[in-house]
Amino acid sequence: MYDDALAWAGSVLGSRVVSADPLDGGMTSTMLALRDEAGTVSVLRLMTNEPWRSHGAELSTREREAQLVLVNTPVPAPVSLGLDAEGAATGVAAHLMSRLPGSPLVEVTDAHLDAMADLLATIHAVRPAEPFRTFQSWAWEAKWVVPARSRHPDSWRRAFEVLASPAPAYEPTFLHRDFGHRNLLWADGAITGVVDWVETSTGPAWLDAAHAASNLAVMFDAEPARAFVEKWAATSGTAPVRHWLVMDAVGYLPPPGRPPMFGDPAQQQRLDEWLGLVVDGLS
């Protein structure tokens, strides 16, 4: 099915690809774990899923550029090996990168949250020679519709009012922009990799922290999310900024006419609960 893409990857690697196994995740893309005849393992991203496929050249190029910036930093990011941004050889935008050891979390502990906060500070300390694009909000106004089965409709309305107000000033910071436990690899309790750099941006540090917290709230519950916010406040030496926490939570609402991002009603309920907390300032 991916013969052209695998042939291209083999030409980049200098060794024929002998196996290609799907990796979990990959909302935007098909992610394949490759092994070539020389025994080298790598990962191939193919931008197959809409609407990201239509922006595949931009997204895959940004990921490669971010990984190049990170080569000589303490951030454990994959190494970019090859890019076919226009899909000339592969049919869709393709990015070949090294494969990092480790696996995603299935449960989260206080020690994991500490490690996440420390890594986020390490990411934010990176100073690219040229800044990446200014962040894009995923909470655009067309999404500002109270979820049908919300237990906190007034909280959503207040959230929309927060976003309608001017955003607070911030110090431009290098952002992963999709930072969270889903994009981290772990081994023996330590982070061995941070992946998925297609959304790398410049923006407020609290937006990265907010996204990590929202993910924790939706996938687990509010307690690890609240704990991560507290840990990031301590690590960064800054107070939580409600605007960015609200922006990230609202960003999980679907565009008009689309189903909820999370098909699991329990996840939808946890998002609803988290939004209520962040609107009230996590008091």
From TrEMBL:
Organism taxonomic ancestry: Bacteria, Bacillati, Actinomycetota, Actinomycetes, Propionibacteriales
InterPro entries per UniProt: AGP_Transferase, Aminoglycoside_PTrfase, Kinase-like_dom_sf
Species assigned in the record: Nocardioides zhouii
Keywords for the protein's UniProt record, in alphabetical order: Transferase
Protein name, entry field: Aminoglycoside phosphotransferase family protein
A GO MF term: transferase activity
Pfam families: APH
Domain Aminoglycoside phosphotransferase: 22-241
